Amino acid sequence: MNTAKTQLLELVAGTNRGLLAAENDRIAILSAIERLEDDNPHPRPLAQTELLAGDWRLLYTSSRGILGLGRLPAIDLGQVYQCIRFQGNRLYNLAEINGLPWLEGLVCVVATFSAASERRLEVKFERSIIGLQKVLGYQSPRQFIQELERGKKYFPLDFSLGRRESLGWLEITYLDDDLRLGRGSEGNVFILSKS
């Protein structure tokens, strides 16, 4: 493993995906991200579909939307995944929410994507599903996505997203066999590991 990658992983290890990161931590992490981006083994990551496709677990983000889920009273943010499926050009963002026993939740946002460049995906968020994991029958990201791809609906917990809020982009700035870095349209950074 290269030194820049090791350093970045050490910096994010104690931050609980960014929830516990102080300002000096965020500055050091952003600097380490930039060093690793300069050493990207795949400067055209969208051509590497076999590496990019699959289920990615979030290690760190600066996204207030995601981190806000971990700041709600009486709940903890569990694992967060971004799952990319090139068949159908679909992207699934899933956040597991831990709370009181038997009240574990799930937030899932489904999007379609298209390539805007060799590094950037244009993303259109289309659907959101929010509910208790038990009610949704959630066992794992893979199982849940398979049900969604078979056309399963979760009324009334399943709704379409409005057009104004539904557009964004994701730029893949680093990609290797087990690590992906990205920057989003709202200025957020994302560090993910292959599940």
Describe the overall structure.
By secondary structure, this protein is α+β, with helices and mostly antiparallel strands. The model has no long low-confidence stretch (mean pLDDT 91). The chain has helices at 3-12, 23-37, 49-52, 64-69, 133-136, 141-149; strands at 54-61, 76-85, 90-98, 105-115, 120-132, 158-160, 167-175, 179-184, 189-194. The longest helix is centred in the N-terminal third of the chain and has 15 residues, at 23-37.
What's the quick description here?
By secondary structure, the protein is an alpha+beta fold.
Could you give the topology of this structure?
Elements: H1 3-12, H2 23-37, H3 49-52, E1 54-61, H4 64-69, E2 76-85, E3 90-98, E4 105-115, E5 120-132, H5 133-136, H6 141-149, E6 158-160, E7 167-175, E8 179-184, E9 189-194
Antiparallel strand pairs: 1-2, 1-9, 2-3, 3-4, 4-5, 5-6, 5-7, 7-8, 8-9
Helix pairs in contact: 1-2
